[in-house]
Amino acid sequence: MLDTDPSHSVVSLRSVGSITSTLIFPLVPWVLECGVVAYSIATALYLASCSDPVYKITGVTNTSCVCPEIKDGDICDLNIFNVTTNCTGTCIGVSCQFFRYQTPRTIDYLHAVNIFGFFWGLFFVSALGEMILAATFATWYWTFHKSNVPFFTLTISAGRTLRYHLGTLAFGSLILAICRIIRVILEYVNHKLSKYDNMFVKAVMCCLRCFFWCLEKFIKFINRNAYIMCAIHGKNFCRSAKDAFNLLMRNVVRVFVVDKVTDFLLFLGKLMITAGVVALAFFVFDGQVIIPETKLPTLNYYLLPVIIIAVGTYFIACLFFNVYAMAVDTLFLCFLEDCERNDGSLEKPYFMSKSLMKHHSVRLAFTSKVTDLCSKNNEAMATGSSGSDGSSTLTLPALGSSGPSSSTLSVVSSSSSFKSSTRSISFQLFPGGHGTYMDESALTASVSGVVEQVNKLISVKPIKTRYNGEIGDVVVGRITEVQQKRWKVDTNSRLDSVLLLSSVNLPGGELRKRSAEDEQMMRNYLQEGDLISAEVQKIFDEGSLSLYTRSLRYGKLSQGVLVKVFPSLVKRRKNHFYNLPCGASVILGNNGFIWISSANTVEGEEGSGGFTQNLEEQEPIARPEREVITRLRNCILALASCKMMLHDSSIQYAYEESQKYTISELLLPEPLLDVSILTQHRLHQMEDD
């Protein structure tokens, strides 16, 4: 569903109302910008006055004056000029007269520097105001209890910005100033070339001017969001710009809608205020509205003051509406970051308001759906499968359901059996946990995700979220960087995971202390781009994971295919290594990375799990095995697209039901949905049995 409601606008109004000092803050950047303008004008005037007087010789044309070394019009120095030098005859009329003022060539370069500094200063002051406001609204958003927002939030944000982020602002404004000065140069060149009727040159200049205009708009967009991310996380400009751009691209449709809706609302607000003030001024000058105790002079032509008032009103409205626009942009980025970083649990609660939760929620309708689940009706919207840990998992699937957002909701029960006679539930008996809230008489999910039920507590884990690791998780990752005594591994989490040199098996399984030679050979063991299976050993304070591959079931992966799904769709079990009857081996990583390869001949703790040390010695995979791997990949993608939980049974059932289709046909929507529905039906039957 597109985010077209005014939820973000309402929250932005609330934040501005909570920190009223932000309404008068635009006066500070405006005063600073006026100072920059005044300084640039004064500098330009001083530079214009930096010129030298030029004197020339006159009167040499007199016939009675013979001066072979000087000529009429030569430049002379008034202080040392002597007409009698080397001159004979009557040279009374020869003199050194003032001709004009001449500006040195260096002054032109200084004027260019002044213009560049003018643009840089304006953009810097504007960026300073944007970051201070962004830091203020970010502080308001990330304060869990809004009543605890500091009274001097704006002052604290200004101090933090001035202390830590001036370099970020200078760099961002420098990029924008360079782009603007290029546009000025292009306009100057275009003005000089306008007198020549060359269509090719005009077309090239038009393209260049259009390109740099678009580039400046794009840089402004990137800078604005980079300042917001810098205010949130405190990182440098480049990292903040990258994080902001990636975050927005992951929500590009929502960004487009919110941006356009906000721009339209702000334009209407400015237009209404301007129209109201202009109408009032017109009626006052026309004499239709009389102000008590005020005598206005009679104006024969009052259209000019009305126009001046209209321009001034619109300028002031833009000045203060920029605060509201900054609040919308900041809170929107905070909202997107909140959705990705948190899941509504007690450990990671949401910071968004209840109105945002209500708009972006998925109604669970627990009363009707759980009742259908308890009655075990074949037409019910719930399916169940038993986990290896003895808990029963009840799934409310998205396949053909009429539920909101068509999302899969899984309820994990701690009991080992399910009886409809004792499990007829109403929402009053099930309190809402993280990711849920009570809306009138219905328990509503604040996110679209997987429902977990522990005893009588129901919580929701978002489907579209990054992987939050736990100790003991089995993960599949890709080496991204080789560092000193460690590798950086992409495990689909917020931060790259760490694999220490001491946490990997040496070739041949040799057990000894790692030496300096081993450090030099690290790239021979694992290099950038290699895929590995590992286990989470430790979680650092900043949230990154420490991995190890000391077991023989872990290590480098090869001759297979990697499938990426949402981590919430991978069911947590004691074992994540499966040799399926179809003749393939599957590693279901808790991080949503699934590795499919040919079947292993050894199972259990001593199995390889896809671990290989000598890749060159391996034989190529036969075509039948490659077809099995490809079919399994398409089946897993089919189940993931329908938001079905992934485990060995569901994957094997999907593989068996897909036999009536070719491998390429499994990429089409109809076979994909058919295989998922048939797999779901078989899971129903397994639960009933």
UniProtKB/TrEMBL annotation:
Pfam families: Choline_transpo, KH_6, S1_RRP4. Choline transporter. This is Choline transporter-like protein. Keywords: Exosome, Glycoprotein, Membrane, Nucleus, RNA-binding, rRNA processing, Transmembrane, Transmembrane helix. InterPro entries: Choline_transptr-like, KH_dom_type_1, KH_dom_type_1_sf, NA-bd_OB-fold, S1_domain, S1_RRP4. Belongs to the CTL (choline transporter-like) family. Belongs to the RRP4 family. The keyword Nucleus applies. GO terms for cellular component: exosome (RNase complex); nucleus; plasma membrane. It is found in: Cell membrane; Membrane; Nucleus. Coiled coil: none annotated. It is a multi-pass membrane protein.
